[in-house]
Fold each of these.
Amino acid sequence: MLNPHFDNRFVRDLPGDPDTSPGVRQVHGAAYSRVAPTPVAQPRLLAYSADMARRLGFSEADVASEDFARVFGGNALLPGMQPFAANYGGHQFGQWAGQLGDGRAITLGEMINADGERWELQLKGAGPTPYSRSADGRAVLRSSIREFLCSEAMHHLGVPTTRALSLVGTGEWIERDMFYDGHPQMEPGAVVCRVAPSFIRFGNFELPASRNDAELLRQLADFCIRRDFPELRGVGRGQALYAEWFARVCERTAVLMAHWIRVGFVHGVMNTDNMSILGLTIDYGPYGWVDNFDPGWTPNTTDRYQRRYRFGQQPQVAYWNLGRLAGSLSLLFDDTEPLQAGLRRFVSTYLDADRENTARKLGLAESREEDTALMQHLQDLLTEGEIDMTLFFRGLADVDVHSPTLAPMEDAFYDPARREAVEPALREWLERYAARVVQQDLPAAQRRERMNAANPRYVLRNYLAQQAIDRATEGDIAGVTELLEVMRHPYDDQPGRDAYARRRPDWARERAGCSMLSCSS
Ligand code: AMP
Ligand code: MG
C-alpha cells in the first residue's frame, strides 16, 4: 500500500543547485534546489478529491491511512520521492521581478500511474525553501481550501487546470496580515497536494534568459518539449521545433483564456510566474468568479486601482505574457519572425475559440460572423443592467424563441433600478436573438442541451467558498466536502441543490473573501 512508482525526470535530466542548505539565496545555473518539506505538528486529512485519488491509483484504504496524511502534510516521504523547489523568475504586474521560485511549493516526485500517465505531485505550504525570500513557506487554511476546491471545480467545468489531491490541516497556526493594514492575525495552516503533468511556468524560461544563460535555457526548452509536449515528436528540430513548440504554448494559452471568459473566471494574478507552459490554470490565489457580468471586475484588492488583471482583460494580458516568453526564447533564435508567428497563432486561436464558445453559449448550431456582435451587445447589456452571468446564460436556454420573455432569467437581476433601465434594450436583444435562433434548423431540445453543456449551472461563487471556509475554520469541514461534490457536476441540474446556484446575496457584496481578496495567503 502507498507504494506508487516515481520517475523523476525533472531532477534527473536538469541541472540542480549543488548547494543543499536551506538558506534563502540566488541560485544560478540550476533549474531547481533539493529541499525536503518541513514536518508539521499534526497532519490531518481534511478533504481529498476521490476523483484524483482514483486517477492516481490510491485506494480508499490508502487515503484513510495515517501515512497518507503524513506524506501529503509533509511529514514523511515515500520511497522514490525526490523533493525539490523549482527555480524561476517572472514579470509581476508588468515589472520584471527577478528570481522568485517555489517559495512554499515543494514537488515530491513525478508519479507514473497504472495507465502510464505522469503526474507531478507538489505540496503547497510545505515550509521554507531557498526561494522563500522573507516569507514562511506556509499557507493558511482559507487559501488552501480555495485552491483545493477551485482546482477540482475547474477540471469538472472542462477548463484546463492543475488538480488537487488532498487538503491536510497542519495543526499549526501562522500569522497573516490579510488586509495588509498592520493587523496580523493567527490563522490555521494547511497543505494542499496539487497535481499536474508539469508545473513549468513561463518564468522558468524567463529567469535563465534574464541572466543570459542560454545553455540552461536551451536545456529547459529541450526538456520541456521532450517531457511535456510528446505531440511534437517528429516535428523537426532546432529552431523549427522551438518555433512550433512556442506556437503550441500560444494555442494552449489562447484556449485557456477563452474558457475563462466562457465560465466567468478571473485569475487575479496573471504574473508570468503564474502562467503554465501547458496552458493550465495554475496558482489559485485571489481569484474570483464573476457574479454580475462586468469585464472591469477584479477580485484582487492589490490590483484595485490599475485593474491590470480584470476579467475582460485576461486574453490581452496572456498575449503580453506570451510576448515576455517570446522575448526570453529569442535567445534560441536567429531572428524573431518564428516567434511573431507564434503570437499570431494566439490571436487566431483565441478568436476561433471565442467564436465557438459564443455559438455554444447562445445555442447556435454554427457560428457566423455577426454572432460576435450579438454576444458583444448582450455582454454590454449584462454589464449595464448588473445581471448575473451564470444565471442569465443558463436561463437563456429555457427561452421559448417563438414567444421570448425574460421570465427564465428572472433571478439574474441584482438591482431593480438598473434592471428597469436596461429592460427595453434587453427585450429588443431577446427578439433579435430569438429571430437568429429560429433561422437555424436546430430542435429546441438540442439547442438547450448544447447551451447547458457550455453554460454551467454551478460555479464556485466567491461567497460559497467563503461560507465553506467559515465553517471549516470552526472545525466543520462538511461545507468543503459538499461544495466539492456539487462542483463535480457543474452542468447538471442537481435536485435539492438550488442553494448552490443562487446569485450572490446582498451581504456578500462587499465582504472580504466574497468580492474582495488580497494576495495574503
Ligand atoms: P504568488 O503571487 O502566490 O504567485 O507568489 C509569488 C512568489 O512568492 C512565488 O515565488 C511564491 O513561491 C512566493 N510566496 C508566496 N507566498 C509565500 C510564502 N508564504 N512563503 C514563501 N514564499 C511565498
Ligand atoms: Mg505563484
Amino acid sequence: MASPVAIAAQAGKLLREQALRPRLLAVRSQAGHLTPRRWLNLQEYQSKKLMSEHGVRVQRFFVASTAKEALEAAKRLNAKEIVLKAQILAGGRGKGVFNSGLKGGVHLTKDPKVVGQLAQQMIGYNLATKQTPKEGVKVNKVMVAEALDISRETYLAILMDRSYNGPVIVGSPQGGVDIEEVAANNPELIFKEQIDIFEGIKDSQAQRMAENLGFLGPLKHQAADQIKKLYHLFLKIDATQVEVNPFGETPEGQVVCFDAKINFDDNAEFRQKDIFAMDDKSENEPIENEAARYDLKYIGLDGNIACFVNGAGLAMATCDIIFLNGGRPANFLDLGGGVKESQVYQAFKLLTSDPKVEAILVNIFGGIVNCAIIANGITKACRELELKVPLVVRLEGTNVQEAQKILKSSGLPITPAKDLEDAAKKAVASVAKK
Ligand code: GDP
Ligand code: MN
C-alpha cells in the first residue's frame, strides 16, 4: 500500500498536470518522456452548474462575456457582497496577474459598479497564474457570484487513483492554499478514503472524512452529505477528478463548494454527450482544433522532427527513440484507427505548417490501417504541398509491400526505413546534415 504522503504527492502531481495542460500531453522534456493527458476540462461555472444540478451547494452566480453583462449580473444578483472570478482552466487565479495590470483573478466587492470596472480589466486580457504558461491565458468569461463569508477553508478532491485501481477521496483541513505545499510540509494533514467502486461510498467513510476536515456537530453531517453527493456526481459524469478548494464553511453554518474543477474521462464521451458538448475548446492551440476537425490529434513539442504516427503508444515510442538517437520531436500527429487518404494529406499540411519542422518521420504500424492508403496519401501530399524537408517513412503491417511499391515508383525523394530504430537514425541524421 502506498503511504498517505505518496498518495497526496501523487494526487497533487496529478492535479497539477491536469491543470497545466488539460487537453494535451504533458511533456517531461528533460527525460524525453510523454504522459498522455487528454481529459476534458470544464470551466468553473460549468462545473458548478453540474454540481448544483446534483444537490451540491454552490453560490448563486451568472456568467458574463462583457463588462456590461458583468455589471448587469451584479445588479441582478442583488447580493450583500459579490465575488468576481476570471474563468480560465487553471488554478491559482486568486494570486494571478492580468496583462491589463490588474492583480488577482478573484475579487470581492459590495459595489456592482466596481464589478463592471474590474470585469473591464479582466475580459480580453491574459491572466497568468502559477499554473498557466508565463504569458497567461486569455479570459473570455467571468463568473459573477454572490459572495459568502468564509469562516474556514478545507480541501476536498475525488480522483481516480491508479495505485488503488479506483476512486480515492483526498481531503485536508488546511484548504484554500496550495495543496502540494500542505502535502510536502504537513503530510499528516492529508487524509484519504479509498472507495470500493462496486460498494460505493459508505456513510462511515463520508463521516470520517468530514471529521478529518474539522467539521463539527451538525456541520459534520452536512459536510458528509455534500461529500457523498460529490462522489455520486463524480461517478455519474465519468469524472477523473473533482476538486473543491476551498470546500468551506460559512459563519451561518453552511458547507459550500467555493471553487470547482472537474476533469472527465475522454473514453466516456459516447455516454456523456451533453457534457462534452460544453467543451468550448477556446483554450486549445488553433492547430489542435484544426487537427481535431480531421479526427487527428496534434501535440506540439519543441524540437525539429515532425512525427506522424498512429496510436498514442507508438507516438511515445517514436518520441523516445528520437531522443535516444540525439534528436528532438517538433510535434506529433496521431492518425488513430480508420484512415482516409484525405486525412494523410491534412496531416502533412498541419505538420509542415510549423516553421520549426526540419524533417518528417512517418511511423505507421498498419494493423487496422491499410499501408497502401497511407502511401497514396503521402505521395499525394508530397506533390501537392511541394514538400521541402526530408521525409523518412517506416511502414509496417497490412499491405506493406504494395505501399512500398507506391512510394518507390513515385520518384519522390522519400527515404524508406526498415524499422523504427532505422527511421529515427535517418531522421536525426537528415536534420544534423543541415
Ligand atoms: P483559485 O485561486 O483559482 O483557486 O480560485 P478560488 O475560487 O479558490 O478563489 C481564491 C480564494 O478567494 C479562495 O481561496 C477564497 O479564499 C476566496 N474566495 C472565493 N470566493 C469567495 C467568497 O465567496 N467569499 C469569500 N470571502 N472569499 C472567497
Ligand atoms: Mn481554488
Amino acid sequence: MSKMWAGRTSAQTAKIADDFNSSIRFDKRMYKEDITGSIAHAYMLAKQNIISKEEADVLSQGLASILEDIETSKLEIDLNCEDIHMFIEQELTSRIGDTGKKLHTARSRNDQVALDLRMYLKNEADIIVDKTKKLIFAIIEKAQEYKSAIMPGYTHLQRAQPVLFSHQLLSYAFMLMRDIDRLKDSKKRMNVSPIGCCALAGTTYDTDRYFEAEKLGFEKIVLNSLDGVSDRDFCVEMLSALSILMMHLSRLSEEIILWSSWEFKFIELSDAYTTGSSIMPQKKNSDMAELVRGKTGRVYGDLIGTLTMLKGLPLAYNKDMQEDKESIFDACDTVKMCLDVYIGMIETMKAFTDNMKKAAQGGFINATDLADYLTKKGMPFRSAYKISGEIVSKCISEGYVLETLPLEEYKAFSDLFEEDLFEEIDLNTCVNKRKSVGGTSIESVENQIKYLKENL
Ligand code: ARG
C-alpha cells in the first residue's frame, strides 16, 4: 500500500513490517478524540489565517461526517492503515479532496497522538471515578444493613479485638475515596494540551496554541515542545492510581474469599456472582473475587511495562511510545470491568451475623478490655496486661472463656475484680466503648457514613 509518508523512501515496506508497525488495532478507539482535535486544529489554522475560514468549514464538515459514519457503523475503520490518525486524514481527503491535505499543517502525529491520548484518558478517569463512587455507595449500604453485627477484628489473621462488620467494610470505602482523589489528581496533569508542539521543536507558523487548547477543554498548555511530545507521565500516574485501586479491591477480594469459606462462613455471595465446579457438586466458588485478585497482577504489569518502556528513551518521540496505549487501555478496561462486577457482588452479598458473633466470642478478643478494666481501677497497664494473660491461659487449659470464668476465680488473681467485670467484657460493650474518633463503636460508624456521604 502506498504510504502517506512516501517520498524520502519508496515506501515499499514489507507486509510483516507494516503489521508490526501498525497501531490501528488498538488506537482506533480514539477516533472521536482524533476528530474533535482535528476540528479544533482546523479552526485555529483559520483564525490565524493559515487556511481560509471556508476551508476550515469544509474540513470540519468532512470530519464531522466521518465521525457520524463511524458511530452509525456506516464507515468501517480500515485496519490496513498504520494508525487512526492516518486513517482519518486519508478518509477526509478521499471525501473532500485536496483541502483535506491542509489539515496536517502546523502539527505532527507526535503532538496529535499525545493530545488524543490525554483527551481519551481524561474521560476514562471520569468514568472510573464514577464507578468507584457507585462501589462506595454499595459498601455504605451494606454497612448500614449490618450496622451492629460484631465480628472478630484480626491482626496477623489472629483474632485480635471485636469490631463491627460495618466498620471493617467502611475501611474499604475510605481506601476507595483516596483512589478517587488520586485519579482526580492525575487528571490535573493530564489536562495540559500538547497540541502545537508539532514534531518536537514547535513550528514556524503563527499558531495559537492557547485557542486550540481552550477549544478542547484543556486548562493549560505544555510549555516545552520536546516535553509535550515525549511526556507520558500522565499514563504512569494513572496506571499507578489504577494499580493502587486494584490493590484495594484485591485485598477486599481476599477477605471475601476467606469469609465465604466453610471455615469462616461469615458471608455468602449471591448465586449470580459465584460459580460451581464441574466435578464437585457441593462447590460454590468466589470466582469473581478471585479474578479481581488475579487481574490486579495484570494492571501492575501494565504499570511496570510502561515505566520500563519509558526509562531509556532519549528525547523526543520514539516509536517505543506507541506501546503506551495497549497498557493504559488494558488497565482502564480491566478496572472498569472489575468495578462493575464488584458493585453487583457487594450489593447482593449476605452476612451470617451469628457466625461472626460466635467467632468473636471464641478467641479471647476481649482480653484487652479485661486488662483495661483493671487499669481503670488503678492497676498499672503492664501489670494488668500480665494478669489478663495469665487468666487467658487458665481459661484455655480449663475450657473456659472470659465470659464464663466464675468471679471467685478472677478474685484469686486480683481483688479489683467485681461483678461489673462481666458487663465490661461483654462484646457489645467492648465495641461500643470504642468511641474514639475512627473507632469501631456504632456512633463512630455512623459518623464515618455521614462523612463519606458528605464527601462523595
Ligand atoms: N501510532 C503512533 C503512536 O501511537 C503515532 C505517532 C507516530 N509518530 C511517528 N513519528 N511515527 O505513537
Amino acid sequence: MNDTAHMPIGIFDSGVGGLTVLRAVRERLPGESLLYLGDTARLPYGTKSAQTVAAYALAATRRLVSFGIKALLVADNTSSAHALDALRAEFPGLPVVGVVEPGAAAAAAASAHGRIVVAATESTVQAGIYPRAILHSRPNARVTQLACPLFVSMVEEGLVEGTIAEQIARHYLDASFSGDAAADCLLLGCTHFPPLAPLFARLLGPQVAVVDSATTTAMVIEDLLALRRLTNRSGRPGTIRYLATDDPERFARVSGVFVPWTLEAAEVETIDLG
Ligand code: DGL
C-alpha cells in the first residue's frame, strides 16, 4: 500500500447535511479515515449564484488539500452542480467525486416508468444538471425539477414528521405525484432531504421510489479508490475528523437529524476560510 492510501478522504458540504453521505461512506468503507468540512458560516449555498458557489467550493477544497487528502467527495449537491470542473482544473491529480451522477444513476435505475422528479435547491435546479445526467442513463425518461428551499430550514429545525412537515411536503409534491401522469420516482437532490425520506415514502405510497445519492456515491468512491490503488488496507478502523466554519455547538446539535450517533461540540474544530 502506498503512503497516500493512509490519507483521509475529504468530504465537503455547505453545512451539516453532507453527514448523510459521510455515514454511507463510513458504512461501506470503515477502514477509511474521513475529514469532513461543513461551511456552516456560508450556508445556504442553494440560493447563491454558480460563481459564488464555485468560489466557496474552491476555498473549502484548498483548505482540505492543505490538511492532506487522497480524494475529495463533494457531498453538497449545489457545489456538485456548479464546481466540479473548476475543482478538477485546479487539482488535476486529486480524484474528485460529486453526488449528482451517482444520484442520477440511482434514480434512472429505480424508476419503474421513467417519470422522475428531482427535488433540489434553487441553484441546483437552475444548473439543470440532474435532468442531463438522468437522461444520459435513461434517454426516454421524463424528468421534472422542483426547487424546495423550505425543506432545508425545516430539516435544520428537526421538523421531519408531523403536521407542519406534512403540509410543506404536500405543498411541493402533490401536483407532481397525482393524476394520470403522476411521477413514479422522487430523487432527493439535496443533502438536507434524506431525513424526510420516511415522510415522503408515507405520503407518496409504495408505487413511488424515493431515492437519494448517498449509497451510490459511496460505491463510486469505493471503486475509484480501488482503481487508483488508494484503498486503505491497514485493517484498522478509520478516524473521522469534523471541521466547520461556524458555531460547533449548532453543528453538533443539528448533526443529530442526519446521523444516528451523537456528536459533541468539542469534537468539531472551527476553521476560517477567509
Ligand atoms: N448542501 C446543500 C445541497 O445539497 C443544501 C443546503 C444549502 O443550500 O447550502 O444542495
